[in-house]
Amino acid sequence: MVFGKLGFLGHERDRLRSEPDSDLLRSELFGIDQLKRHAVALAGTHSVARRPGRDEMLTRLAENERVLYAAYDIVTAAAASGQRIVPAEAWLLDNFYLIEQQIALTRRHLPRGYSRELPRLTGGALIGFPRIYDVALELISHQDGRIDGDNAAAFVGAYQMAGPLNLGELWAFPIMLRLALLENVRRVAMRIARRREEREVAIAWADRLLAVAEGEPKQLIHVVAEFAEVDLPLTAPFVEDFYARLQAQGPALAFVQAWLEHRLTEQGVSAAQLFEAASRMAAADQISIANSIGSLRFISAQDWGKFVEELSLVEQHLRMDPVGVYGRQDFPTRDRYRHAVEAVTRGSAHSSGCSCA
């Protein structure tokens, strides 16, 4: 059977086929001013609770890791067998060492129970998840995975105009960015793996037709009938590789191509339109994974202590020290001051300015 399991990868292929959420974290791209307005609006929609909840983040990380390794194994197997590797797949292969490093770093900086103490959402699609995780997801989705110091500071600063964040959330922001970027890479990887399987099925059917045409031409019509009966989804990757395989062999199977074009016409699409759609999708995936990989590198290089200090609302008040003693202290001492002030004000009606249950 052509559409069978391929050795040890069969189980993971079955699981990847049933995976939800393969759509990229991609919304309308915003400039800095639009990003700031969106951050303020987002804060207005968030209702959070300070009561400890379930630790969802390590489970999320483990699931992303499983899918990423499964997709990597599928693409690695294709490369090892000499199949043509598309640019997005090359990005995954070339940068997987970095993905592994980032998974390990995230796990190291996200000890069990850490996220339970962060203010969490009480409604919406991410109910129960830390609010700061949704902030990270929204920033990534409106920048197509391209994060830098300017857009991160602008987004978090604007968010705090309507929803002040505590120090724990600010310190957790780079961890949540890592998690969200890994989530985005996972979604690209799922799309890559599914399209790789569609290509493999196309190659298998094309090779079978070619073998029959060469060795048993009288049986060709029966194999074509079997092919038609299977009724495979005529996706862009399938049609692209199927056509390429047949066209390389000259006019011997021209009637098969004509039959396939007729099937596409019945679906209201042409091969050229499918190829154009495949090209757009491949370009979008390549940009998204390249942006996400670049942003993971940025997170490792960024001075997050400076970021937290610049965005901390407690810091802004302490900097008003009229004699300037606070500002002349070193960073660890200032950080202890910030945490002490936040601890003293915790539970006060004026502690955060947000509507926390």
From the N-terminal CA to the C-terminal CA, the straight-line distance is: 58 Å
Give the beta-strand count: 2
Integer-rounded radius of gyration: 26 Å
Q: Main β-sheet: number of strands, strand sense, barrel status? A: 2 strands, antiparallel
Q: What is the approximate shape? A: elongated
Beta-strand content: under 5%
Q: What percent of the residues sit in helical stretches (DSSP H or I)?
A: 55-70%
Strand order of the largest sheet: 1-2
Task: Name the structural class.
Answer: mainly alpha
What is the number of helices?
15
**What's the order of the H and E elements?**
HHEHHHEHHHHHHHHHH
Q: Which residues sit in consecutive blocks of at least 5 with pLDDT less than 50?
A: 1-9, 351-357
What is the averaged pLDDT score? Answer: 81
Fold topology:
Layout lengths: L9 H8 L14 H14 L2 E2 L7 H24 L6 H8 L1 H14 L10 E2 L9 H11 L7 H11 L7 H49 L4 H11 L5 H12 L6 H13 L4 H31 L2 H8 L1 H6 L12 H15 L12
Antiparallel strand pairs: 1-2
Helix pairs in contact: 2-7, 3-5, 3-8, 4-12, 5-8, 6-8, 8-9, 8-10, 8-12, 8-13, 10-12
